[in-house]
Amino acid sequence: MGLGALALVGVLLVAADHIDAPGAMGTSADIADFYAFEPTEGSDNTVFAVDLQSNVLPDLAYGTFDENVLLEINIDTDNDLVEDLVIQAIPRDGKMYFFGPVAPSETGLNGAIMVDAPLGSVDISAETAIVETTANGVSLFAGPRQDAFFFDFFQFNEVIGGTAPLGFKPAGDPNSTDDDDETAVDTFDGSNTMSIVVELPNSLLGSTTGQNALGLEVYKTWVTTNVKQ
Amino acid sequence: MKYKNIKYTFLSLLAVVALVSCSDDDDNTPIVVTETCDDGIMNGDETGVDCGGSCTPCEEAMAPDFTGTYAQVDFMGRPGINTVLSADGTIKDAHNVSIPSEMAATFQADFEARLEAYHDVYANILGADPAAVNYENNILGLDAPTLTGYLAADVLEVAPNLPTTYFNPGTDADDDGRILVPDGDEVALTGRTPQDDVIDVSLILLFGGMEGDRFSGQDTDGDGVADLPRLTSDGVGLTASVGTTFPYLGAPE
Predict the structure, then answer these.
(1) Would you say A205 and A75 are in contact if contact means Cβ atoms under 8 Å apart?
(2) B5 in helix, strand or coil?
(3) Can you give the residue range of the structural domain that contains A197?
(4) What is the pLDDT along chain A (229 residues), one digit of tens a residue?
(5) Looking at the partner chain, which of B96, B198, B235 has a beta carbon nearest the beta carbon of A169?
(6) Does B158 sit within 8 Å of A36, measured CB to CB?
């Protein structure tokens, strides 16, 4: 592919998944980011954090969870890349309702809310975080948060557009606020996103036979947004 | 005649009867007002507006509606995969409405072509033959088809019983002078924390070659000016505040 074609596709490209595709870009269902981690070393919990929407650029849908958008965290526990468990979240009237982890009624592109497996609900936060902790040790959150993703996205577009012979810029003084154009800048610094965070005991997910490329035991996970038909 | 057809014939007969009786019902009999469960007022034996008594229990009537079918519109596994490796909007949209078990077969070839196209960008800038500047096996020893096939099956792995790191190279346990090459002491691909520099890891895997530093702004002729582009780090680290307690992500700015 020549330079011209690459320059064209690089015009509007944001990562990690922020504004990633024409179909979902900038909508209330646009997934911005996904984290899955052990909260502290040796913990028996796993945290799933999903960011929807973003205000990193003007004119994007941002600030309100959409009642027609179901978030689904998919978990494969037997290494076949098909979800064995789902955790779902959907807002209703100022609250975020969570369901699962439970085997979905159907796998794949279409699904239903697993109403018989409620996990709990939490009031959607404004600036101050409202956290709900359920009797079985699950913590729930939904509301606006800082976008923790960091990337010099504008320079990335220069790089793939063929207009940056030197590639990315070197790291600048992290305490410097001057924008000298010589050092790298985190495009996402100062932007926010609509986050949904679930922390739950691994016992609710069960064991896994999945393995990563190094042979370590892992859940294989992904998130989807799904619009009511 | 099949049962279904009999059933519908019977129903349509009923409908005809009902229509006929309706059309005959044109006398001026006074309309009797009855309380219903959907008239928007509390009446009859209701204990709330249109609920309770002989209507749906109020608690149930007030419960949110979770019915319906929901269809996938966006997808994410590892950070940046669709953004960086899908070449155009058509592929990105297709990726968002696909499922992981089919992704490697569907997207590997496109992703490999995209990876090669990125190398051509710098071949052109460097004045080299694009056909001569190609992806080289990375620090994990993966060739282009294997790497792009692995990334195309776009899932985020998270280990329930290991510390989380998107990629931690470990130390040079086998003393081969290359700390980035897996030698048994590394923990990697066990999840993703907000602190993980996933972009740098991705750049190293895509452009770093076997040592992880293939295109890292080297001054190859010693004249004090970089001769190779800096492609293995974007130069930025975490700027947002991230906490150590739930919900971990900092309050909005």
Answers:
(1) yes
(2) helix
(3) 26-147+189-227
(4) 333 333 333 333 445 566 666 777 778 999 999 999 999 999 999 999 999 999 988 888 899 999 999 999 999 999 999 999 999 999 999 999 999 999 999 999 999 999 999 999 999 999 999 999 999 999 999 999 999 999 999 999 899 888 999 999 999 876 666 566 789 999 999 999 999 999 999 999 999 999 988 788 999 999 999 999 9
(5) B235
(6) yes
Whether B126 and A162 have beta carbons less than 8 Å apart is answered as no
A184–B236 C-beta distance less than 8 A: yes
Work out how many CB contacts closer than 8 A connect A with B: 340
CA dist., res. B194 & res. A38, Å (int): 11
Its ipTM equals 0.91
Report the greatest alpha carbon distance in chain A. 58
A202 found inside a domain: yes
| B68 in contact with A, Cβ within 8 Å | yes
B222 touches chain A (CB under 8 A): no
How many angstroms away from the CA of A68 is the closest CA of chain B?
Answer: 8
Residue among B70, B190, B235 minimizing CB distance to A218: B190
Instruction: Indicate whether A11 belongs to any domain.
Output: no
Tell me, yes or no, whether A107 lies in a domain.
yes
**Residue A203 C-alpha from the chain's centroid:** 23
Using alpha carbons, list the distances in angstroms from residue B214 to A215, B123, B133, B176: 27, 14, 12, 18
Q: Does A14 contact chain B (CB < 8 Å)?
A: yes
Q: Where are the domains of chain B?
A: 36-61, 81-211
Whether A180 is in a domain gets the answer no
Neighbour tally for B71: CB within 10 Å: 15
Whether A227 and B193 lie within 8 Å, measured CB to CB = no
Residues of A in contact with B86 (CB under 8 A): 21
Q: Which residues of B touch A62 (CB under 8 A)?
A: none
Total number of domains in chain A: 1
Rounded-to-10 torsion of CA A198, A201, A205, A211: 100
| DSSP-assigned beta bridge partners for residue A46 | A200
